[in-house]
Each structure stands twice: as C-alpha cells, then as structure tokens.
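Let us work through a complete example step by step.
Step 1: write down the sequence.
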Amino acid sequence: MESKTREPKDDLRLRALKTFLTLVEMGGSFSRTAEKLNLTQGTVSNHIGSLEKFFNAELFYKVERLREDKIERVSEGENLNRAGIIVFERVREIIAILNRTKEDIERLKGEITGTLRIATSTIPGEHILPKFMAIFKAEHPTVEFEVDLSNSGKSLEKLLAKESDLAAVGSLVGYDAEVEMFPIAEEELVLIVPPEHELASNIPVDPKTLVKYQLISREKTSGTRKETERILETAGLSIDEFQSVLELGSTEAVITAVSEGYGISVISSIAAKKSENYIKIIPLKAIENRRKLFMVRRVHESYPVLVEAFWEHVKNSIAENE
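Step 2: predict the structure and record it as tokens.
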C-alpha cells in the first residue's frame, strides 16, 4: 500500500499573536511581557519563535545589528525590523477583526461575557473601580477585567486609540469634546508633609507659603498634577515658583517620598487617608480644591453588550447611592 507523505500543518495560535502584540507594547521586554500575561519568559520566547517559524522570517533586529538608519520604532524601545512591522500591523488588524466578530455575536445572543479593558489613573483604579468590578463579576462570572493602571493622560490616549474599552480618570483637560462621561466619585486634594515637618498641624495652610519647600509631584500627564496646577493658579501661583519639583510616577511613590522627608505634596484625600500613619494631612486654605473622578468612553460609537452593561452598572450604582 502506497504511503502518503503528510504536508506540515500550519499552526498559528491566537495566543502567540496576542503575546507578540504585548511584547511590542512592553517595548520588547520579555520579562515585562511574561509578567503582564502571567507566562514564563520561556513561553513568551516560544510564542515569538513560533511566529518567526510560521512567517519564515526574523521579526526583530538583533542587538548587534541595530543601526539608527535601519530602525523603525513602533513604540518606545521596540526594535522591530521591517518584517516585524508588517506582521505587527497585520496582527493588530486580525485581533481587531476577531474582537469585533466576537462582540457582534455576543450582541446577537445578548450574552454578557468576554474581557473588558479599562484604562485608569491611580485613584479610581486602586480605590474606586474594584468594588464595581467585584459586584459585576459576581453577577457575570465569565466576565474578565483587564485593567491598565497609569495616569489620566495616558489612559485617555489609550481609550481614544481603542486600546481600551473604557477609562476612569481624574482629569479631562483637553479631551472633553472627544468623550462622554459621568462622575463616579468626588474628592478633595490635600497637602501632605512628613510627620515631624514644621507645617505638621491641623491649621489650614495658605498655598502661597509653600513655594520655599521642595514639591513632590506626579508626572505632567497625571490628573492629580493637572488639578494641583489648577489649585496653585487659583491661589495666584505657578508650579515653577517652587524651590524645586521632584516628579514621580505613582501616588504611592509620592507618599513614600514625603514620608521619608524629601518634600511636600498635594494629593488625593482618598489616597492620603490610607497612609495617615506615615504622613500628616493638612487642609489648604481658602481655595476650591475639590475634583470629580469620571468614567469615560468614546462618543458616537456602538458598544458591545459587555461594555454597555458595565457602563450602566456603574452609572446605576452611583445613582442609587446619591
């Protein structure tokens, strides 16, 4: 009996495609990609290897081959070669088509399932959203949440780039016309100082007296930073008038730096109250220091059942507690 020779079977797995996109997003870092996807670095390497085998091409420049005149960066730190750039663009299209197809079928069936991507700044992401997600998850066990924690500016950029379904932020400056929103919380911004600082009392402080100290602040795209600048402007001050400004990438880092005596800061009262053992919280005198936190989505868009359901869940929960 004549035997038949089997042709090798093409095997391009969806997980490998998603790993590749995440690796690009993580700037080519296998360790950060593995951490984000809860995989081993070996698995990440295998996924990328399977893609290169499938396309019969290397997708990244090797370190020793990098040349400024050759490189085309897709994102900061990413060293895709030309084949890699082509694959990157096509894979994004494939994943987007698959997601839209899944959403259309979910809408057809009316089922609430799938993965909801939320880009969020620190305060709503760490202190506001978890309770809404927990209740929603209890009602819809098959739903998964993918939360990207950064700052307000970056979260809004991800939302408008359709890299997230929803966003939760502390500032909408510059984005008001491109999104629809509703408030999910209101808070005040407060001054924090080290426990033994000369300002450490319960007496409200005039913002104008703060300029002689080092200000520890979030980065410029942070909602807290934008609101701090607004408060200072209300008091007739600029952030540039401070003795010096140290910028840090998270509220926790700011609190730690203040508690260790490196300066003072203006931060969310919600975050400050959870660290009262390490810092002194002081009210600011005679200024409007309250702000709202918002749930946000893109305007003029038809949303999948899951996105619409969570949006309404949060909105209704807020209304019930007013």
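Step 3: interpret the result. The first strand starts at residue 114 and ends at 121.
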